[in-house]
């Protein structure tokens, strides 16, 4: 069935098509890992040229929301994809070597959102949230203390038992177990010293320099769904970002 643009906009036409495609993703029309219709079919659906559809899909591909596969088509990106699943984890060994990644759950409990967390997640202060604390280990060495806060309602299935049984990327858990896919993140980086329990769980002397990464992750529609604080030891690792 042909779907046409219903709202006038000063945005370029391909951006309007991109917005409509995103709405289809939000509604669950195409699940993570599923193929989306061809450019020709989408052009008919939206009443635009294939070139306009291609430009919209190009932007979605650049943002890792969809993945093009030569000769097969275009698919909704998933955190099980090798190129996507670790794109929010940017701490790498100084010598560039590949490492075995593991995690150790420290706690998972319900609490109340502080004013700062409420602002970050666009919820009310005092709202019920789930707080997760864990260690990320690189080749058996604890390098990151991870503190994660999630709004309780959409993540009510997240429990200690579920996290331990899954034993993998939290983003993959959100996607495969709860149907929530993170598509982008904003980060703030600062330098701090390890103190108190953080120094203890990382096995560090008090005051050891750490890289603090505060991240808010968003799902479709630019809705904030996760606040995360990673405190990283960088004596033989560094934060890597790539610009295209």
Major beta-sheet overview? 6 strands, antiparallel
Q: What percent of residues adopt helix (DSSP H or I)?
A: 25-40%
Q: Which superfamily, in CATH terms, is the homologous superfamily of the largest domain?
A: Chorismate lyase-like
What sequence of helices (H) and strands (E) makes up the elements?
HHHEEEEHEEHHEHEEE
Sheet-strand content, in percent, reads: 25-35%
Average pLDDT number:
86
| Overall geometric form | globular
Tell me what the CATH architecture of the largest domain is. Answer: 3-Layer(aba) Sandwich
Radius of gyration: 20 Å
CATH topology of the largest domain: Chorismate lyase
Total beta strands? 10
Poorly predicted ranges (pLDDT <50, ≥5 residues)? none
- Overall tally of domains: 2
The number of helical runs is 7
Structural class: alpha+beta
Strand order of the largest sheet: 4-5-6-9-8-7
Q: Give the class-level CATH name of the largest domain.
A: Alpha Beta
Distance between the termini: 37 Å
Q: What can you see in these coordinates?
A:
It is a single chain. The chain has helices at 13-26, 39-46, 50-62, 115-121, 160-166, 170-178, 196-202; strands spanning 66-69, 73-76, 91-93, 101-112, 128-138, 141-151, 184-193, 209-219, 223-232, 237-239. It has 244 residues and is of the alpha+beta class. It has 2 domains: 13-76, Arc Repressor Mutant, subunit A (Orthogonal Bundle), CATH 1.10.10; 91-239, Chorismate lyase-like (Chorismate lyase), CATH 3.40.1410.10. A 6-stranded antiparallel sheet has the order 4-5-6-9-8-7. Strands 1-2 form a two-stranded antiparallel ribbon. A hairpin with a 3-residue loop joins strand 1 (66-69) and strand 2. Helix 1 crosses helix 3. The longest helix is centred in the first third of the chain and has 14 residues, at 13-26. The chain is globular. The chain starts with 12 loop residues before the first helix and ends in a 5-residue tail after the last strand.
